[in-house]
Amino acid sequence: MENAVSRNGNERRLFVFGLGYVAQRLATRLLPEGWKVAGTTRSAEKAAAMKAQGIQAFLFDRGHHLADPKLALRGTTHLLITLPPDAEGDPALDHEDEHIADLQNLAWVGLLSTTGVYGDHQGGWVDETTPLNPSGPRGLRRVKQEQGWQKLAARAALPLHIFRLAGIYGPGRNALEEVARGTARRIDKPGQVFSRIHLDDIVGALRASIAKPEPGAIYNLADDLPASAEEVTDYACGLLGRPSLPLIPFEEAAKTMTPMALSFYADSRRVSNAKLKNELRYRLRYPNYQVGLKALK
């Protein structure tokens, strides 16, 4: 990783639209290296916590634009967008696109998207060349978000990189936590398979891309072992010394699922990470959920 001063002598400053789970982890890696980190949140309480970490915090959402965009974005050399689009679109793109286009020292722009843009492939493999065919409104919003940023990148010569994330797990967000809380369920949907990615491998891939920018690149972020959700839950039970949970037929479980959970079960696919490995030369710290969960135990 390069140090906190870029090749042209500018101080390296990361600005994040939506400084949440992934970006917080990235910030903890960059701040000790001398980077400046700034970002947005919707909550004054979270803004205070960010400031306590040494992060410049700005309130922002669809109904609350940046109070002074030029001031907030001044000096930004690296820009990360993690905000999911809402029904109206991408708030950052809709409200701050011209201010972003005016930034003069951008070396890297990253957009976190989702492998949901590929839709259902009945357990088949997808890669970055697979046509986008989302199966629901959330995936369609993501496709439109990607296209919107690609259009802005073409117009303003932004060094855009798109990262399509598989299911995220990591500290505080994993099957071990669900089993320990008693909220885990083993849902039986034959043929259903998901891909996953550990939080630290997302951060590692972002850092690898920052160190080796390839404007226009798209990368799938997924590990080596797609698996069903019930397999992962069963493995977590074993790690914790708990008995296996009973299998619940999907049709029964679906009656109490949230719309987001149902959207995950609408698709079945295996996500290739060959480009991440071969072009970005990134080596996964957690190549499968078994290694990842053991490390979290």
From TrEMBL:
Origin: domain of life: Bacteria
A Pfam family hit: Epimerase
Q: Does the keyword NAD apply?
A: yes
Q: Alphabetically list the UniProt keywords.
A: NAD
Q: Per the database record, which ranges form the NAD-dependent epimerase/dehydratase domain?
A: 112-221
Identify the PANTHER family for this entry.
EPIMERASE-RELATED (PTHR43574)
The protein depicted here goes by the name: Nucleoside-diphosphate-sugar epimerase
What organism does this protein naturally occur in?
Limibacillus halophilus
